[in-house]
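Protocol step 4 of 5: obtain the predicted structure for the target chain.
Materials: sequence only (see below). No template structures provided, no constraints applied. The aim of this step is simply to have a reference model before the mutagenesis design in step 5. Sequence pasted as it appears in the construct record:
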Amino acid sequence: MTYKPYSIDWHRKRYLKEALDNYINNNIDNEIIFADIISILCERSEQAYAEFSKLNDLEARFYGVK
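Step 4 output (structure tokens):
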């Protein structure tokens, strides 16, 4: 997919391409690339869940549920 130069989408794709190029240029095994992607996604998911839990607790306290 082609994006308008210097748009947010163009930068996002460029950053991803640069990261992948770095792995490929350094001859990193596909399993390591996959493991790193999964690790990043899991970390992000855990952070999002922690934030959700905190906000959910705050909301429950606000409404007097807890």
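Step 4 remarks: The longest helix spans residues 30-62. Residues 29-66 form one domain.
Proceed to step 5.
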